[in-house]
Amino acid sequence: MMMPSLISSLTAALLLASGIHAVPQGPFGAESVIVSAVPTASASTAGVAASQPTTSLGSSSNAASDISACNNSPLLCDRAYNNVTHMGAHDSSFLKDGSTGNSLAGNQYFNATVALDAGIRLLQGQVHDTNGTLRLCHTSCSLLDAGPLQDWLAKVKFWMDTNPNEVVTLLLVNSDNKLVSDYATVFEGSGISTYGYQPTDGSTASKTWPTLREMITSNKRLVSFIASIDYSTIYPYLLSEFDHVFENPYDVLSLSGFNCTLDRPKGQGSAENAIASGRMPLMNHFAYSVLMEGVQIPDETNIDITNSADTTTTGNLGLHADTCVKQWGVKPTFILVDFFDHGPAIDTADRLNGISDATGRKSTSAESKESSTSGAGENKAMGINVALVAFVGFALAMV
Q: Which of 21, 86, 90, 128 is catalytic?
């Protein structure tokens, strides 16, 4: 019989070799080992009413007569950025597909540009420094490497070039505490900085944001948050996340664990205080289950519940959103999910935004999945998954 400690060590080593990652998006280090995998959900759309202040900055410099829809709907054009719910892909560059051998570390089936085509408007990712190059890596570049950040940004920029009526938000985890100037180098090298929106005072939260139309007509339609950097007036389009955003907890281990309490920045004390300060709510909504001590995997079994827009069952994305609306008095400005195509998650954002007839979206398909790596994100992963999982299963059976 194999000793439990030996099993644990072997399992940990093998799982790491296959592309397991640590805590999903915290820049403060790994607390547990987390893997990613998934399947489908159904959605219902009922109304919800709650909004943030709709005041906006200034007037746009160019005529907007050719703008018939903003972020896939004419209803959003004259709504302030902070009064729109932006659906987001958590760890958007880390794929579970053929390009990674269906890596256990993947959080999405489709890359960032496919996500954008499908209506996702918030892309989140983890950034690490490898020999002086900022790369999109899942906890470690030896586990899952989606390539240089600059290359990924260039692909997102190309999508924005060809979709001029869309406002996009980026949220990057500054895993190695690099300087804002390091990020500015790759943003400017990719060319995407030309779209960077610059608040009047980016060092502090504000209840006053421009409308989507104003951002589009001024061509300053990319909002970039980095956790955590020090804001610099030299690069005013790069914003420190927690100066402007607060989050609920992200390490959820059961469908009953979703809640709306403030997790970060802790200095705000409560969601109520954060909202009063002008910070925008980001609602994390992805669940994990415990594979074994110290090892977590996404709760694949319940994904149909987790990503559902329905509001009747514990764990539903729709129910979680409604709960937060009631507690906060405002709707979430941002929502992050794994495997965005299931649900589909965008249905919940549409309901919160009052949209029933979104335009210009492309549905995800087997074809888009096959070509996913030709867009934003070129994943490279260590490892073998099928043989690995079989071996781990055999080892556990020996205990």
A: 90
Q: Tell me the average pLDDT across 200-219.
A: 97
Closest by Cα among 72, 63, 172, 79 to 127: 172
Neighbours of 370 (CB within 10 A): 12
Classify residue 7: in a domain, yes or no: no
Domain assignment of residue 396, yes or no: no
For the question of residue 138 being annotated catalytic, the response is yes
Detail the DSSP E strand segments found in 107-259: 122-130, 133-137, 144-148, 168-174, 222-227, 238-240, 245-247
Q: Is residue 306 part of a domain?
A: yes
**Catalytic site includes residue 342:** no
DSSP string for residues in 70-124: BTTBGGGTTSBGGGS-EEEETTTT-B-SGGGTS-TT--BSS-HHHHHHTT--EEE
Q: Return the CATH number at 214.
A: 3.20.20.190
Distance, in Å, from the CA atom of 282 to the CA atom of 275, rounded to the nearest integer, reads: 11
Select the highest-mean-pLDDT range: 17-21, 90-94, 387-391.
90-94
Is 367 a member of any domain? yes
The whole-angstrom separation of Cα 398 and Cα 390 is 13
CA separation, residue 64 to residues 58, 75, 77, 209, 378 (Å): 15, 15, 10, 18, 36
pLDDT digits (tens, 9 = 90+) for 285-330: 998 877 667 766 677 778 889 999 999 999 999 999 999 999 999 9
Number of domains in the chain: 1
Q: Which of 86, 128, 138, 342 is catalytic?
A: 138
Q: Rounded to an integer, what distance in angstroms lies between the CA atom of residue 213 and that of residue 167?
A: 9
Q: Would you put residue 219 in left (φ > 0), alpha (ψ -120 to 50) or beta?
A: left
In this prediction, residue 51 carries a pLDDT of 44
Predicted structure pTM score: 0.83
Q: Whole domain around residue 97: which residue ranges?
A: 20-44+69-382
| Spatial separation of the C-alpha atoms in residues 30 and 33, rounded to whole Å | 7
CA 68 – CA 75 distance, rounded (Å): 9
Rounded to 5 degrees, φ, ψ at 110 are: -125, 145
